[in-house]
Write a structure and sequence with these properties.
Length: 122
């Protein structure tokens, strides 16, 4: 069986200086901030909703994603390059990754499910 290579396509624009009122007035159309919301299901009886968000950070251990749940909880995931996509960065529960057909992966940790954008190469 061939293993699919999963490359997470999660980019979040960096923060910049806040624009002045003059700049806002002179720019009739502005690019909206990136939509970092993802579909998630928190708990076994919940439905998928676009109510979770994610943040991307690069550090000595590579890229870490923090997925924030609507109830204030969060999960940290470490991006790996061995074809799995992500692994749990901390905690006792492992992350299980399933490749979806629509350029996403579903990450299951405990009873929580998160659908993240990804590039899948076979």
């Amino acid at each position: 069986m061939k293993r699919a290579l999963i490359l997470l396509a999660l980019t979040v624009a960096g923060c910049g200086d806040a624009p002045t009122r003059e700049a806002e007035a002179s720019a009739p159309t502005r690019n909206p901030p990136p939509d970092n919301r993802i579909d998630c299901r928190i708990g076994p009886d919940a439905q998928f909703e676009r109510s979770c968000t994610f943040e991307r950070a690069e550090g000595a251990d590579g890229v870490t994603l923090t997925v924030r749940k609507p109830d204030g909880g969060f999960r940290r995931l470490r991006v790996v390059t061995d074809g799995r996509g992500v692994v749990a960065a901390d905690g006792a529960e492992p992350a299980q990754v399933t490749v979806m057909n629509d350029r996403r992966i579903e990450v299951a940790i405990g009873e929580d499910r998160f659908r993240l954008p990804a590039t899948i190469r076979r």
